C-alpha cells in the first residue's frame, strides 16, 4: 500500500539525527551531535536503590497516576524552585511532562493555529523548529548577540507579524550557549508584556552553569529566569519549562511546565489525549531519589558542572589546532554546546558526511536555523556526552575532515 503522509511529516523524516543515532550504536563511533548528558555520570547506585525501594514498597507505582503528575514530586519542584529560583507557583500551576520536548509540543498544540506567527531565537534548537513546523506555524527568527535577543529586532518583528509566542532559552541557549544579560532579560520581558506576546522559556540547561570562584566575571554569574522576573511567576507572561533529563537522567523522561493555571489546565487536557500521563513509575522513582538521604541533587549537579567545565576546556584546547585556525566561536559559561562558525567556504552538511565516514558526528548548523542558508557554515558540538578520551578522538577525526576540505579549496 502507498501511504499518503501529511506534508508536515517531511520535516520529521528529513532529519539526519536518525542516521546519526544508527551510527552511534557502533562501539567505535563518537557522537558530538546530540543533546545528551554524560552517561558515565549517571547516579546509578542511587537510582538502583530508589527503584528497589519504590517497587518493593509502593506497588501503586505500576498503576495509572494523576494526569498532571505525581503530587509529591510536583510539590518538591514547587518548593525547590521557590527557594532557589524565586518562582512562587501553586500546585495547579505545575504539569509534569514526558521531557521538556513534550512541554514545548503541548503549548504549541494548544496555543498555535495553522499559519500563526511564532518568534524563535536564531539559531535555535532543532527540536523547537520541528515542533513548530509540525504545528504549521509561521516561524520568524529573531537575531541576537552575546547578551541575548536584540531588542530593536524583536520589537520590529512583533509589530510586523503579531506573533502568538516567543520561544527562548536565556540560560545557555541551544545551540549557541549564550547567557542573556540581566538588562536584556528585563527588556525582552517588558517588550513582550507591552505587546501581549506569551514567552515560552526553556530552562533545561539553566542549572549547568560553570562557577569559577577564583575570578569575578561571567563564570560566577547567575541571573533570574524570565519567569522569576515576571512577578516571581505570578504575572502570567511566561510559561517556564524545565527538565531532569540534563541533571539526573534523560531515560526517566521527566520534564515539567510551570505557568498560569489556565495554560497548565489546557496543556494538561492535551496531554491526556497524547499519553494520559507521564510514567508513574519513573516519577515516583525520581521523587524517591530526590528525597533520599544518600543522594543530594545539588551536589550531583555541582559534580556535573565541574566535569562539564573540564570537558569544555579540553575542547577549547583541541580547537587550537591548525585545522580550526579561522574558525570563530565564543566559549559558553554553561550548558552543553559550543557553536562554531567554520573556516570560510566550509559547508557543515558536507563536512558532516565526511566526518561520519570517519566515525564521528556533530549537529550541522542548518538544523538550528529557520533559513538553512544561515547555518550552512556553522556546527554545534556537544562537549558533555563524550568522555575525555572520546572527545579527543572525535575532535581529531573532525579536524582531519576539516583539513581535507581546506586542502582542496
From TrEMBL:
Cofactors that this protein relies on: pyridoxal 5'-phosphate
GO biological process, one term: alpha-amino acid metabolic process
Bilayer-crossing regions: none
GO terms for MF: pyridoxal phosphate binding; transaminase activity
Domain Aminotransferase class I/classII large, chain residue ranges per copy: 43-383
Source superkingdom: Bacteria
CDD domains, sorted: AAT_like (cd00609)
InterPro entries: Aminotransferase_I/II_large, Class-I_PLP-dep_aminotransf, PyrdxlP-dep_Trfase, PyrdxlP-dep_Trfase_major, PyrdxlP-dep_Trfase_small
Record keywords: Aminotransferase, Pyridoxal phosphate, Transferase
Family according to the record: Belongs to the class-I pyridoxal-phosphate-dependent aminotransferase family.
Subunit structure: Homodimer.
UniProt name for this protein: Transcriptional regulator
Source organism of the structure: Paenibacillus crassostreae
Amino acid at each position: 500500500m502507498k501511504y499518503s503522509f501529511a506534508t508536515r511529516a517531511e520535516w520529521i523524516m528529513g532529519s539526519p539525527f536518525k542516521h546519526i543515532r544508527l551510527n552511534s550504536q557502533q562501539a567505535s563511533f563518537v557522537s558530538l551531535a546530540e543533546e545528551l548528558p554524560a552517561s558515565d555520570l549517571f547516579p546509578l547506585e542511587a537510582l538502583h536503590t530508589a527503584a528497589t525501594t519504590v517497587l518493593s514498597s509502593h506497588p501503586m507505582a505500576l498503576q495509572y497516576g494523576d494526569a498532571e503528575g505525581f503530587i509529591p514530586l510536583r510539590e518538591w519542584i514547587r518548593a525547590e524552585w521557590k527557594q532557589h529560583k524565586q518562582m512562587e507557583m501553586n500546585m495547579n500551576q505545575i504539569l509534569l511532562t514526558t521531557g521538556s520536548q513534550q512541554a514545548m509540543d503541548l503549548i504549541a498544540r494548544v496555543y498555535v493555529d495553522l499559519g500563526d506567527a511564532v518568534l524563535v531565537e536564531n539559531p535555535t534548537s532543532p527540536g523547537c523548529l520541528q515542533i513548530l513546523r509540525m504545528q504549521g506555524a509561521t516561524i520568524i527568527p529573531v537575531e541576537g548577540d552575546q547578551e541575548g535577543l536584540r531588542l530593536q529586532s524583536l520589537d520590529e518583528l512583533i509589530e510586523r507579524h503579531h506573533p502568538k509566542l516567543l520561544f527562548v532559552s536565556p540560560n545557555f541557549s541551544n545551540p549557541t550557549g549564550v547567557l542573556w544579560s540581566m538588562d536584556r532579560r528585563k527588556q525582552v520581558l517588558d517588550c513582550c508584556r507591552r505587546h501581549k506576546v506569551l514567552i515560552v522559556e526553556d530552562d533545561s540547561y539553566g542549572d549547568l552553569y560553570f562557577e569559577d570562584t577564583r575570578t569575578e566575571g561571567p563564570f560566577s554569574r547567575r541571573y533570574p529566569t524570565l519567569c522569576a522576573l515576571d512577578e516571581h511567576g505570578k504575572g502570567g507572561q511566561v510559561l517556564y519549562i524545565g527538565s531532569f533529563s540534563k541533571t539526573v537522567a534523560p531515560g526517566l523522561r521527566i520534564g515539567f511546565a510551570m505557568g498560569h493555571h489556565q495554560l497548565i489546565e489546557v496543556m494538561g487536557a492535551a496531554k491526556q489525549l497524547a499519553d494520559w500521563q507521564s510514567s508513574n513509575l519513573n516519577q515516583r522513582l525520581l521523587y524517591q531519589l530526590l528525597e533520599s538521604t544518600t543522594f543530594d541533587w545539588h551536589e550531583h549537579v555541582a559534580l556535573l558542572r565541574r566535569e562539564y567545565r573540564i570537558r569544555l576546556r579540553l575542547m577549547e584546547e583541541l580547537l587550537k589546532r591548525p585545522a580550526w585556525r579561522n574558525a570563530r566561536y565564543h566559549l559558553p559559561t554553561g550548558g552543553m554546546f559550543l557553536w562554531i562558525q567554520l573556516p570560510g567556504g566550509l559547508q557543515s552538511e558536507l563536512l558532516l558526511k565526511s566526518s561520519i565516514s570517519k566515525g564521528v558526528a556533530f549537529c550541522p548548523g542548518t538544523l538550528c536555523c529557520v533559513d538553512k542558508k544561515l547555518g550552512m557554515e556553522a556546527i554545534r558540538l556537544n562537549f558533555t556526552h563524550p568522555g575525555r578520551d572520546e572527545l579527543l578522538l572525535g575532535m581529531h577525526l573532525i579536524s582531519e575532515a576539516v583539513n581535507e576540505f581546506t586542502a582542496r579549496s
